[in-house]
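Same chain as my last thread, 382 residues:
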Amino acid sequence: MILQIVNNMRRRIVIFFFSVIMAFSGKGQIMGWEPLGLTGYGPSPWPITFADLNLAVGGLTRGPGVTTTGSAAANGWGGTGFFYATASAGIAANAFVTFTIEANNGYLVSLSALDLNYRRSASGPPSGLLQYQVDNGAFYDICTLTFPSSTGSGGSIPQVILTTFVALQNVHHGTLITIRIIPYGASSSLGTWYVYNVTNPAGYDLKMNGTVTSDNSPVTYTWVGNDGGNWTTPANWNPTRQVPADNDILLFNYGFSKTIQMVPGETVGQVIISANTIVNLIASGSNTLTIIGGVGDDFIVPSGSQLLVSGANPLAVSCSPGITSVITGILSINGNLIIGTGSSFKVNPGSSVTVEGNIVINGGTNQFGEKSAETMHDYCNY
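reply #2:
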């Protein structure tokens, strides 16, 4: 009894120190599937058992060429139909399994290692290929796999290290990673292959290690909403703008005139209008759109393009200290124009800036006189 207690304590201490080491390394387990309790080859897609809260993981999915013929082993997820001599033939026949990974908005994901416990029948596939895809690009090989054991207790592949694959590191929200496993070489079309519960009762049998970290780099969101669309509707932006950040880059390049409603008070990194686009903003209240800057010019309205602010509610445009604004098209706002200390505001010949509120430059209000509406033409540099 005493020996058993000591051994249990040792085991807990080892687990504790392992957990501490993983926490400090920053590359812990970020997702995993546990097939304990599955029957009938399992569902497809098979939802993730565990995932980091800031990851969106698509379920493990059988390709159309994977069958579920015959009796299935308990505590396993998989199928049959891997009766192809090569991985290429298996891919052509859609005899593979896939899952997807995407970081949530405001986060980055990096993949460091993959672990897999498997089971196959004696006539099941002894070989495999592991691949990845980024968005809708080509699939690239990671490594070949072997499944040498055909015993009922299953087996484990050597851990696959992924840190050398640059495309799988620091992947932003809006970029989808697809992982594909192609088992092949079965001697019969009825040969089985599973993700299998080797570590009963604890531990995930298909798991990914890596990191999920905050993403402080700016994301460019392009307006794709309809005329009259709501600024705050996430799907009106591409990628979907779920959580606005103060360094977001907002791009309007659809090439014709659209009205965008319900513009809130918001801070963004840059506002860029291009391709002869006319943007007409209508505020949800007496709000301020503050531009704090990024890399390059920060507030751009080129020749042929227009930024108009209309409606009953005034919308002020505030150019924070140090940013660069270049207006060669038309800017017309129904609120204040605020130009911060040290910022550059250029209005080129042939362009027009109309401000119905006050113009504040370097802390001085209404530098152009007592009138509430001011129009600046030709070249100005403040």
